[in-house]
Each structure stands twice: as C-alpha cells, then as structure tokens.
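Complex 326.
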Amino acid sequence: MAAPARARGASFLEDAKNATTEWLRKAFELDGYVAGQEILIAVYLALRLEKPILIEGAPGVGKTEIAKVLARIFGTDLIRLQCYEGLDESKALYEWDYQKQLLHIQLLREAGCIPEESELFSEDYLLERPLLKAIRAERRPVLLIDEVDKCDPEFEAFLFEVLSDFTVSVPELGTIRARQIPIVVLTSNNERELSDGLRRRCVYLFIEYPSVEKELRIVRSRVPEASDKLARDVACVVARVRTMDLRKQPSIAETLDWTRALLALGVEKVNDQLLAETATMLLKNRDDVLALREAAAGGRWVTEALEACEPGRPHQAGKTRRPPRP
Ligand SMILES: Nc1ncnc2c1ncn2[C@@H]1O[C@H](COP(=O)(O)OP(=O)(O)O)[C@@H](O)[C@H]1O
Ligand SMILES: [Mg+2]
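Predicted structure with magnesium ion bound:
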C-alpha cells in the first residue's frame, strides 16, 4: 500500500477501502490532525463498510476538519452541504436555471420558433447542488453534510433516503445512480436530536473536549512557532478554564486563536494579567470573560492552573479541579 503523502499528486491511496488504521494514523498526523484511536477506528470502519460517519460534539472540537483531512489525504474533492433551517431539495440536490430557460424561450420566440420542453429541461439548464454533484462525481468524493442538526426533520428524512441508495430521480432526466458511494461525513453540534433511522445508518463518533495532553499536541501541530513552554501553559490554562461554570467553554479553535494571539503579543509565558487582557480570544461571551477576569484578579489563578496540570490526565468537563495545597 502506498505511504500517505502530504502533497497533492503524490502517492495517494487508490481506494479508501484499503486504508488501514495505521495508514490513517500516519496520514492524519502528516496532515497535522491529532487523532486518537477512537477517531481512527470510527473513520476506518466508515471507509471499510462504506457507511456515512456521523460526528457529534460541541462546536470547535474538530468535526468538520475530519472531512477536510479525508479529502486531502485521498487527494479527492470535498463537496460541502451546509445545513440550515429551511434547506430544501432544490438547494441540496438540483434546480433548474429559470433565468437561462427564460432567455432561451425569449430568443426562440424572437426567431419565431416554439421551444421544445425536452430542450429546456436538459443538462444545459440543470444547476447541480452538492448532493447531485457528489452522486455524479467521476472520482469518489468526500461529501460533507455539515451541521445536520440545523436542518428540518423533513429534510433529514429526505437525506436519509438519499444516503440509503445514492440514487435520485430527476423526472426530466431519469434515474441517476452514483458511480461509487461517496465518503460521507455528517456533523452535528447536537442542537436537535437526530432521527434513529439516520443514526442507525451511520458509524457514530462523539468528540469530547481534548485532554491536556491531546490539546498540547494539537497546539504543537497547528502552531509550531509556539515554544514548548507556551504550548504547555496554554493547554493547562485552557483545561482549567473549561472547569469553570461558563455559558460556552473554549473550543480547540479558540485555544489555537489564543495561542496565536499570545505569539503576536510576543508572550513567552502566561500570567494572570495576560490572561485577563487576552480573555476575549478564548471566550466569546461577556459574562464568561468577566468571570475569568474576576478569577484571575487574585493573581494566582494561572500559577494554580499550571501546578495542577498533568498532561496525560483526561479532562473532566464541568468538574472543579482543586489545585494542590501549598
Ligand atoms: N484533533 C485536532 N488536530 C488538529 N487540529 C484540530 C483538531 N481538532 C480541531 N482542530 C482545529 O480546530 C479548529 C476547529 O475545528 P472544526 O473542525 O472547524 O470544529 P467543528 O467542526 O467541530 O466546529 C480547526 O482549525 C481545526 O483544524
Ligand atoms: Mg464545523
């Protein structure tokens, strides 16, 4: 089997079904994505069994990125369907280009002709939307159905049908069957409970906030300019921030933003004053920022976070971790 490669055009795996967990581990690592065994096994099974993978977790924990990584490591297209309330078949599957059709009718009329219906409802006037694009793709693409919990239950039912057989019927063109089943990644922020049917069809993966150790590896991978000391400070402080009673805990995206902000400010090690000054890079809610500033006002909050920090210990969301007594 070809070794995973970083650059496009290099030796990609011919068939995603041949990817072993070890191949995936190396490929994810080369791409800078830190993935534990749980993620690798779920991705492996989805590829092997040709099932969609449904990834749930809080915003910013790395769900969407998995689809992007898969497209990159297999050197294939990423086709993205962003879900939202009111999304319907015409925006997800296909629609007819009415303006172009009207223009065509007008031109024919001016020339004294009557347009044929079959002429107007042909390939030339078809606007492919993500699902049809994925079904008709030449090369097996990655189809990302992002934030599926945002769509309406009716659309979810339609999606379930499409994902069942990857066959769609366009009355004017006939039945279109996928040449190969796309690699499908569905993500959900858990804002709405998804149907059992959809869940059953998928390989399920839940991504938690990372442990200190994992977050440290992510910071090192994504912000290699940061020193080991700074990366460690960041991971430890963020872990303690996540134990606070906040409206919205900082995600990995915010950890990375904060690290880059600290670098931009020329910071080499974190202290309480810096944390208070840069808290808005980490927290995006006024009450949360004020709570963190108040916590840091004592002057020992960061020190305690670093003293209590043990990379390797799993993060315990929502539980207050008491720092050791001096
Ligand atoms: N395990 C990881 N390894 C490397 N980078 C990660 C990891 N998890 C998340 N990230 C980074 O965090 C950011 C947010 O990830 P994203 O996939 O957009 O989150 P989500 O879709 O869960 O809201 C991205 O910049 C992504 O690259
Ligand atoms: Mg996302």
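Residues 7-11, 315-326 have pLDDT under 50 and may be disordered.
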